[in-house]
Structures are given as structure tokens and as C-alpha cells.
């Protein structure tokens, strides 16, 4: 049986329910970044930033994307 997530929790996180479903069982930033690196190498220059922000507790993809847009491109 799958996990059911309360819509208000998903709304507060600012994440799509599918993203929450993927992150529920993630043990570390390594799990998330490893999957991202397998799919798209465009994140390579930003992996350090993503690790740092994950370890700071940021799990909001929209926030990370806004930060990405505001960063100078390598």
C-alpha cells in the first residue's frame, strides 16, 4: 500500500505530489543528486550548491529553481 500525503502538507512544501512521493524515502542528498546526475548533466555546475542547500533543509524545488536563475552562469 502506498503512502497518502495530506494536500495541505504538499501545499506548504510547495512541491508536486509526485515529488513528495519520490522524496519520502530519500535518505540523503546523495540519493537525489545521483538520480539527477544520471538524467541530466546540466546540473553539474550546481551540485555543490544543491548539496549545501539540501543540508540546510531546503527541499522546495521552486525555491532552488529561483536561486538557480539568480546565480551567474558558469
Topology:
Layout: H1 7-13, H2 17-23, H3 29-39, H4 47-55, H5 61-70
Short key terms for the protein model shown above:
mainly alpha, 74 residues
Q: What's this, in brief?
A:
This protein has five helices and no strands.
Task: Describe the protein in words.
- By secondary structure, this protein is mostly helical.
- Helix content is 59%, strand content 0%.
- The chain is built from five helices and no strands.
- The model has no long low-confidence stretch (mean pLDDT 75).
- N to C succession of SSEs: HHHHH
Count helical runs: 5
Helical proportion? 55-70%
Structural class determined from secondary elements: mainly alpha
Oligomer: single chain
Q: Radius of gyration, rounded?
A: 13 Å
Number of strands: 0
Shape: globular
Distance between the termini: 44 Å
Amino acid at each position: 500500500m502506498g503512502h497518502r500525503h495530506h494536500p495541505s502538507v504538499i501545499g506548504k512544501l510547495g512541491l508536486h505530489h509526485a515529488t513528495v512521493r519520490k522524496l519520502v524515502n530519500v535518505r540523503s542528498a546523495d540519493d537525489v543528486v545521483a538520480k539527477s546526475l544520471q538524467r541530466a548533466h546540466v546540473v553539474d555546475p550546481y551540485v555543490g550548491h544543491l548539496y549545501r542547500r539540501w543540508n540546510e533543509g531546503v527541499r522546495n524545488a521552486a525555491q532552488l529553481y529561483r536561486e538557480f536563475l539568480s546565480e551567474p552562469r558558469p
